[in-house]
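Chapter review: from sequence to fold.
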Amino acid sequence: MNKPVVSFVAPSGTGKTTLLEKVIVALKERGIRVGAIKHDAHRFDIDHPGKDSYRFTHAGADTTVITSSETLALVKRHTASPTPEELIATYFGDLDLVLVEGFKRSTLPKIEIHRREGEQNLICRGDYHDPNLLAVASDEPLQVDVPVLNLNNPAQVAEFIIERVVRGMAA
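The token string follows.
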């Protein structure tokens, strides 16, 4: 895959979504076209009873697209979750960067989030040494073999991604 991508990984409740939201804002301020993928280990419904699109899907449509002048949503039934690489190749070709929340066992480049009050063992430096770990975003100093970014400074995290991933892939 040649699209710049970074997956943010951490145990549930660590603040992945909150950090990603702030990093997206910082990247957009720098003119980066950003896509986002959220991995959900549980079943979820994006469509709701009573809506026309729900009625199509509920009637058996394998793919339903809802579109307007500003947005598009896709509901596609499948038997197995697509890989992040498949999703990126299919839906994110027009973007500069894709940020992913989750897929901790993938081969995607990763930034792990660590909080002082959370789990002390890192996912990517615990039982499994993930060679795709780019950095750790933490609210405390850590002794680790990758850069440690300030979890409370999303602009710093965004700059790291621009330098290491976006520009790094262009080099």
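Two observations follow directly from the output. Residues 45-80 form one domain. DSSP finds four helices and eight strands in the chain.
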